[in-house]
Protein backbone atom coordinates (compact mmCIF):
# COMPACT_ATOMS: atom_id res chain seq x y z
CA UNK A 1 0.00 0.00 0.00
CA UNK A 2 1.40 3.37 -1.02
CA UNK A 3 2.26 5.71 1.87
CA UNK A 4 0.74 9.18 1.49
CA UNK A 5 1.60 12.63 2.80
CA UNK A 6 -1.38 12.30 5.13
CA UNK A 7 0.07 9.11 6.62
CA UNK A 8 3.37 10.86 7.29
CA UNK A 9 1.58 13.87 8.79
CA UNK A 10 -0.38 11.65 11.19
CA UNK A 11 2.76 9.79 12.27
CA UNK A 12 4.67 13.04 12.87
CA UNK A 13 1.71 14.84 14.43
CA UNK A 14 1.89 17.76 12.02
CA UNK A 15 -0.13 19.13 9.12
CA UNK A 16 0.04 17.79 5.59
CA UNK A 17 1.31 21.23 4.54
CA UNK A 18 4.29 20.91 6.90
CA UNK A 19 5.16 17.50 5.47
CA UNK A 20 4.90 18.94 1.95
CA UNK A 21 7.25 21.79 2.92
CA UNK A 22 9.82 19.30 4.20
CA UNK A 23 9.50 16.98 1.19
CA UNK A 24 9.89 19.91 -1.21
CA UNK A 25 12.85 21.26 0.79
CA UNK A 26 11.31 24.65 1.45
CA UNK A 27 13.58 26.76 3.70
CA UNK A 28 11.04 28.03 6.25
CA UNK A 29 10.96 24.88 8.38
CA UNK A 30 12.76 24.68 11.73
CA UNK A 31 15.51 22.05 12.05
CA UNK A 32 13.58 20.30 14.84
CA UNK A 33 10.40 20.09 12.76
CA UNK A 34 12.35 18.92 9.70
CA UNK A 35 13.98 16.16 11.75
CA UNK A 36 10.60 15.11 13.18
CA UNK A 37 9.00 14.82 9.76
CA UNK A 38 12.03 13.10 8.27
CA UNK A 39 11.91 10.52 11.03
CA UNK A 40 8.28 9.73 10.13
CA UNK A 41 9.20 9.54 6.43
CA UNK A 42 11.97 7.06 7.19
CA UNK A 43 9.79 4.95 9.49
CA UNK A 44 6.97 4.66 6.96
CA UNK A 45 9.20 4.37 3.88
CA UNK A 46 7.47 7.26 2.14
CA UNK A 47 8.60 7.92 -1.44
CA UNK A 48 7.49 11.15 -3.09
CA UNK A 49 5.78 11.11 -6.48
CA UNK A 50 8.53 12.90 -8.42
CA UNK A 51 6.44 13.31 -11.56
CA UNK A 52 3.67 15.05 -9.65
CA UNK A 53 6.18 17.19 -7.81
CA UNK A 54 7.81 18.43 -11.01
CA UNK A 55 4.44 19.03 -12.67
CA UNK A 56 3.28 21.16 -9.75
CA UNK A 57 6.31 23.36 -10.40
CA UNK A 58 5.57 23.50 -14.11
CA UNK A 59 8.50 21.17 -14.82
CA UNK A 60 8.89 17.80 -16.49
CA UNK A 61 11.74 16.53 -14.31
CA UNK A 62 13.86 15.84 -17.39
CA UNK A 63 17.25 17.29 -18.35
CA UNK A 64 18.49 16.79 -21.91
CA UNK A 65 22.06 15.73 -22.68
CA UNK A 66 23.16 16.06 -26.32
CA UNK A 67 26.55 14.66 -27.33
CA UNK A 68 28.22 14.06 -30.71
CA UNK A 69 28.88 10.32 -30.41
CA UNK A 70 27.29 7.95 -27.93
CA UNK A 71 29.44 5.21 -29.47
CA UNK A 72 32.55 7.08 -28.33
CA UNK A 73 33.61 5.67 -24.96
CA UNK A 74 34.30 9.11 -23.50
CA UNK A 75 30.79 10.39 -24.19
CA UNK A 76 29.22 7.13 -23.03
CA UNK A 77 31.07 7.37 -19.72
CA UNK A 78 30.27 11.08 -19.40
CA UNK A 79 26.58 10.33 -20.01
CA UNK A 80 26.65 7.81 -17.18
CA UNK A 81 28.17 10.40 -14.87
CA UNK A 82 25.52 12.99 -15.86
CA UNK A 83 22.73 10.48 -15.21
CA UNK A 84 24.15 9.77 -11.74
CA UNK A 85 24.54 13.48 -10.96
CA UNK A 86 21.00 14.27 -12.15
CA UNK A 87 19.57 11.49 -10.00
CA UNK A 88 20.98 13.25 -6.94
CA UNK A 89 18.62 16.12 -7.78
CA UNK A 90 15.74 13.78 -8.66
CA UNK A 91 15.98 14.47 -12.39
CA UNK A 92 15.90 12.04 -15.29
CA UNK A 93 18.22 12.48 -18.29
CA UNK A 94 17.09 12.31 -21.91
CA UNK A 95 19.99 11.50 -24.25
CA UNK A 96 20.32 12.93 -27.75
CA UNK A 97 22.92 11.97 -30.35
CA UNK A 98 23.80 14.86 -32.69
CA UNK A 99 26.54 13.05 -34.68
CA UNK A 100 28.48 16.32 -34.45
CA UNK A 101 26.32 17.74 -37.25
CA UNK A 102 25.52 21.43 -37.15
CA UNK A 103 21.90 21.04 -38.21
CA UNK A 104 21.27 18.54 -35.43
CA UNK A 105 22.96 20.75 -32.85
CA UNK A 106 20.82 23.69 -34.00
CA UNK A 107 17.63 21.63 -33.63
CA UNK A 108 18.60 20.64 -30.11
CA UNK A 109 19.74 24.04 -28.82
CA UNK A 110 16.92 26.05 -30.40
CA UNK A 111 14.13 24.19 -28.68
CA UNK A 112 13.67 20.79 -30.36
CA UNK A 113 12.00 18.60 -27.71
CA UNK A 114 11.70 21.68 -25.47
CA UNK A 115 8.29 20.57 -24.22
CA UNK A 116 9.77 17.52 -22.55
CA UNK A 117 12.97 19.05 -21.14
CA UNK A 118 13.52 21.52 -18.31
CA UNK A 119 17.11 22.23 -19.34
CA UNK A 120 19.82 21.12 -21.73
CA UNK A 121 23.46 20.09 -21.43
CA UNK A 122 25.04 20.29 -24.89
CA UNK A 123 28.47 19.25 -26.16
CA UNK A 124 28.70 20.96 -29.57
CA UNK A 125 31.25 20.39 -32.32
CA UNK A 126 29.98 22.42 -35.27
CA UNK A 127 27.56 24.90 -33.70
CA UNK A 128 28.39 28.53 -34.49
CA UNK A 129 27.93 31.60 -32.30
CA UNK A 130 25.13 32.91 -34.50
CA UNK A 131 23.25 29.63 -34.02
CA UNK A 132 23.25 30.07 -30.26
CA UNK A 133 22.52 33.80 -30.53
CA UNK A 134 19.34 32.92 -32.45
CA UNK A 135 18.15 30.64 -29.64
CA UNK A 136 14.67 31.55 -28.36
CA UNK A 137 14.09 28.69 -25.95
CA UNK A 138 14.41 30.03 -22.39
CA UNK A 139 15.23 26.65 -20.79
CA UNK A 140 18.66 26.69 -19.10
CA UNK A 141 21.51 25.66 -21.40
CA UNK A 142 24.97 24.52 -20.32
CA UNK A 143 27.78 23.99 -22.82
CA UNK A 144 30.47 21.31 -22.58
CA UNK A 145 33.69 21.13 -24.55
CA UNK A 146 36.18 23.48 -26.05
CA UNK A 147 34.21 25.49 -28.59
CA UNK A 148 34.12 28.98 -27.06
CA UNK A 149 31.07 31.22 -27.42
CA UNK A 150 30.86 34.79 -26.10
CA UNK A 151 27.27 34.27 -24.97
CA UNK A 152 25.49 34.11 -21.58
CA UNK A 153 25.64 30.37 -21.03
CA UNK A 154 27.63 28.47 -18.43
CA UNK A 155 30.51 26.66 -20.10
CA UNK A 156 32.38 23.70 -18.60
CA UNK A 157 35.75 22.84 -20.09
CA UNK A 158 39.12 21.52 -18.95
CA UNK A 159 42.30 23.40 -19.87
CA UNK A 160 43.26 21.41 -22.97
CA UNK A 161 46.48 23.29 -23.61
CA UNK A 162 47.73 22.69 -20.07
CA UNK A 163 46.65 19.04 -20.24
CA UNK A 164 48.46 18.49 -23.55
CA UNK A 165 51.58 20.16 -22.19
CA UNK A 166 51.51 17.86 -19.16
CA UNK A 167 51.32 14.83 -21.46
CA UNK A 168 54.22 16.00 -23.62
CA UNK A 169 56.25 17.02 -20.57
CA UNK A 170 55.91 13.50 -19.24
CA UNK A 171 57.22 12.03 -22.51
CA UNK A 172 60.12 14.49 -22.53
CA UNK A 173 60.98 13.46 -18.96
CA UNK A 174 61.47 9.93 -20.28
CA UNK A 175 64.10 11.18 -22.71
CA UNK A 176 61.84 11.09 -25.77
CA UNK A 177 62.48 13.80 -28.34
CA UNK A 178 60.71 12.72 -31.54
CA UNK A 179 57.20 13.06 -30.16
CA UNK A 180 54.44 12.75 -32.74
CA UNK A 181 50.97 14.26 -32.42
CA UNK A 182 48.16 12.13 -33.85
CA UNK A 183 44.68 13.52 -34.33
CA UNK A 184 45.21 16.95 -35.87
CA UNK A 185 42.59 18.21 -38.29
CA UNK A 186 43.63 19.47 -41.69
CA UNK A 187 42.13 22.94 -41.17
CA UNK A 188 43.93 23.15 -37.77
CA UNK A 189 41.01 25.16 -36.40
CA UNK A 190 38.76 22.41 -35.08
CA UNK A 191 38.73 22.40 -31.32
CA UNK A 192 39.67 20.65 -29.07
CA UNK A 193 42.16 19.00 -31.45
CA UNK A 194 43.64 22.40 -32.22
CA UNK A 195 44.12 23.25 -28.54
CA UNK A 196 45.86 19.94 -27.85
CA UNK A 197 48.03 20.50 -30.92
CA UNK A 198 48.95 23.95 -29.56
CA UNK A 199 49.84 22.37 -26.21
CA UNK A 200 52.05 19.80 -27.97
CA UNK A 201 53.81 22.56 -29.89
CA UNK A 202 54.22 24.83 -26.87
CA UNK A 203 55.76 22.21 -24.58
CA UNK A 204 58.23 21.04 -27.22
CA UNK A 205 59.29 24.61 -27.93
CA UNK A 206 59.60 25.45 -24.23
CA UNK A 207 61.89 22.43 -23.79
CA UNK A 208 64.13 23.44 -26.68
CA UNK A 209 62.97 20.61 -28.93
CA UNK A 210 62.48 21.50 -32.58
CA UNK A 211 58.81 21.21 -33.59
CA UNK A 212 58.82 18.83 -36.55
CA UNK A 213 55.60 19.15 -38.56
CA UNK A 214 56.41 15.85 -40.27
CA UNK A 215 55.48 14.17 -36.98
CA UNK A 216 51.91 15.50 -37.09
CA UNK A 217 49.31 12.93 -38.12
CA UNK A 218 45.99 14.30 -39.36
CA UNK A 219 42.75 12.35 -39.04
CA UNK A 220 39.23 12.66 -40.38
CA UNK A 221 37.70 11.37 -37.15
CA UNK A 222 38.83 10.27 -33.72
CA UNK A 223 38.27 6.54 -33.56
CA UNK A 224 40.51 3.46 -33.55
CA UNK A 225 40.63 3.31 -37.34
CA UNK A 226 41.71 6.96 -37.56
CA UNK A 227 44.60 6.38 -35.19
CA UNK A 228 45.63 3.23 -37.03
CA UNK A 229 45.57 5.00 -40.39
CA UNK A 230 47.52 8.02 -39.15
CA UNK A 231 50.17 5.83 -37.52
CA UNK A 232 50.56 3.70 -40.63
CA UNK A 233 50.96 6.80 -42.81
CA UNK A 234 53.55 8.22 -40.42
CA UNK A 235 55.62 5.04 -40.41
CA UNK A 236 55.28 4.61 -44.19
CA UNK A 237 56.67 8.12 -44.65
CA UNK A 238 59.89 7.05 -42.95
CA UNK A 239 59.33 9.42 -40.02
CA UNK A 240 59.52 7.09 -37.05
CA UNK A 241 58.81 8.80 -33.72
CA UNK A 242 60.04 7.61 -30.34
CA UNK A 243 56.80 8.73 -28.67
CA UNK A 244 53.20 9.54 -29.58
CA UNK A 245 50.78 11.94 -27.96
CA UNK A 246 47.33 11.13 -29.33
CA UNK A 247 44.25 13.34 -29.43
CA UNK A 248 42.32 10.72 -27.48
CA UNK A 249 42.58 7.16 -26.18
CA UNK A 250 40.84 5.61 -29.18
CA UNK A 251 43.34 7.20 -31.58
CA UNK A 252 46.17 6.05 -29.30
CA UNK A 253 44.89 2.47 -29.15
CA UNK A 254 44.48 2.33 -32.92
CA UNK A 255 48.04 3.58 -33.32
CA UNK A 256 49.33 0.99 -30.86
CA UNK A 257 47.73 -1.78 -32.89
CA UNK A 258 49.71 -0.69 -35.97
CA UNK A 259 52.90 -0.53 -33.90
CA UNK A 260 52.32 -4.12 -32.81
CA UNK A 261 51.70 -5.22 -36.39
CA UNK A 262 54.94 -3.53 -37.49
CA UNK A 263 56.96 -5.27 -34.78
CA UNK A 264 57.43 -2.15 -32.67
CA UNK A 265 57.30 -2.40 -28.88
CA UNK A 266 55.38 -0.08 -26.56
CA UNK A 267 56.97 1.66 -24.72
CA UNK A 268 60.48 0.40 -25.50
CA UNK A 269 60.44 1.63 -29.11
CA UNK A 270 57.58 4.13 -28.92
CA UNK A 271 56.01 5.49 -25.74
CA UNK A 272 52.33 6.47 -26.01
CA UNK A 273 50.04 8.88 -24.16
CA UNK A 274 46.32 9.22 -24.86
CA UNK A 275 43.56 11.47 -23.60
CA UNK A 276 40.19 10.83 -21.86
CA UNK A 277 40.99 7.79 -19.66
CA UNK A 278 38.20 5.63 -21.07
CA UNK A 279 37.71 2.18 -19.55
CA UNK A 280 39.27 0.51 -22.59
CA UNK A 281 42.59 2.23 -21.88
CA UNK A 282 42.90 0.30 -18.60
CA UNK A 283 42.37 -3.11 -20.19
CA UNK A 284 44.43 -2.98 -23.38
CA UNK A 285 47.22 -5.56 -23.74
CA UNK A 286 49.56 -2.65 -22.91
CA UNK A 287 47.63 -0.35 -20.58
CA UNK A 288 47.59 3.23 -21.74
CA UNK A 289 49.03 6.29 -20.05
CA UNK A 290 46.43 9.00 -20.48
CA UNK A 291 45.16 12.42 -19.48
CA UNK A 292 42.11 11.80 -17.31
CA UNK A 293 39.56 14.64 -17.23
CA UNK A 294 37.47 14.69 -14.07
CA UNK A 295 34.26 13.39 -15.69
CA UNK A 296 32.38 13.26 -12.40
CA UNK A 297 33.15 16.94 -11.77
CA UNK A 298 32.15 17.87 -15.32
CA UNK A 299 28.84 16.06 -14.89
CA UNK A 300 28.19 17.45 -11.42
CA UNK A 301 28.91 21.05 -12.45
CA UNK A 302 26.72 20.73 -15.54
CA UNK A 303 23.74 19.36 -13.65
CA UNK A 304 24.15 21.84 -10.78
CA UNK A 305 24.22 24.68 -13.31
CA UNK A 306 20.92 23.60 -14.87
CA UNK A 307 19.23 22.88 -11.55
CA UNK A 308 20.52 26.12 -10.01
CA UNK A 309 19.09 28.22 -12.81
CA UNK A 310 15.78 26.39 -12.63
CA UNK A 311 15.55 27.12 -8.91
CA UNK A 312 16.47 30.74 -9.56
CA UNK A 313 13.65 31.04 -12.10
CA UNK A 314 11.22 29.45 -9.67
CA UNK A 315 12.22 31.86 -6.88
CA UNK A 316 12.15 34.85 -9.26
CA UNK A 317 15.81 35.58 -8.63
CA UNK A 318 17.86 37.86 -10.87
CA UNK A 319 19.70 35.59 -13.32
CA UNK A 320 23.37 35.28 -12.43
CA UNK A 321 26.12 35.93 -14.94
CA UNK A 322 27.38 33.09 -17.12
CA UNK A 323 30.41 31.24 -15.78
CA UNK A 324 33.41 29.47 -17.29
CA UNK A 325 34.10 26.43 -15.11
CA UNK A 326 37.30 24.38 -15.43
CA UNK A 327 37.38 20.98 -13.71
CA UNK A 328 40.81 19.50 -13.18
CA UNK A 329 42.59 16.61 -14.86
CA UNK A 330 45.11 13.94 -13.91
CA UNK A 331 47.93 12.38 -15.90
CA UNK A 332 47.61 8.66 -15.18
CA UNK A 333 50.80 6.74 -15.92
CA UNK A 334 50.45 3.16 -17.10
CA UNK A 335 52.42 0.57 -19.06
CA UNK A 336 52.59 2.51 -22.33
CA UNK A 337 55.15 4.80 -20.65
CA UNK A 338 56.09 2.43 -17.80
CA UNK A 339 54.92 4.95 -15.17
CA UNK A 340 52.90 4.25 -12.09
CA UNK A 341 52.21 7.47 -10.14
CA UNK A 342 49.31 9.86 -10.89
CA UNK A 343 50.00 13.60 -11.08
CA UNK A 344 47.11 15.96 -10.35
CA UNK A 345 46.83 19.51 -11.69
Poorly predicted runs are none
Broad shape: elongated
Structural class: alpha/beta
| Lateral arrangement of strands in the main beta sheet | 7-6-8-9-10-12-13
Strand segment count? 13
Fraction in helix: 40-55%
**DSSP helix count?**
12
Instruction: Determine the mean pLDDT.
Output: 87
Distance from first to last alpha carbon? 52 Å
CA radius of gyration is 24 Å
Largest sheet: 7 strands, mixed
What fraction strand? 15-25%
Give the helices and strands as they follow along the chain.
HHHHEHEHEHEEHEHEHEHEEHEEE
In short:
Helices cover 40% and strands 16% of the residues. The protein has helices at residues 5-12, 16-23, 31-44, 50-56, 73-87, 102-109, 129-133, 160-173, 193-206, 224-236, 249-261, 295-314, and strands spanning 62-67, 92-97, 119-122, 141-144, 154-156, 179-184, 216-218, 243-246, 271-275, 289-293, 324-325, 329-332, 343-344.
What topology does this entry show?
Elements: H1 5-12, H2 16-23, H3 31-44, H4 50-56, E1 62-67, H5 73-87, E2 92-97, H6 102-109, E3 119-122, H7 129-133, E4 141-144, E5 154-156, H8 160-173, E6 179-184, H9 193-206, E7 216-218, H10 224-236, E8 243-246, H11 249-261, E9 271-275, E10 289-293, H12 295-314, E11 324-325, E12 329-332, E13 343-344
Parallel strand pairs: 1-2, 1-3, 3-4, 4-5, 5-11, 6-7, 6-8, 8-9, 9-10
Antiparallel strand pairs: 10-12, 12-13
Give the tags:
345 residues, alpha/beta, 7-stranded mixed beta sheet, 6-stranded parallel beta sheet, 12 helices, 40% helix, elongated
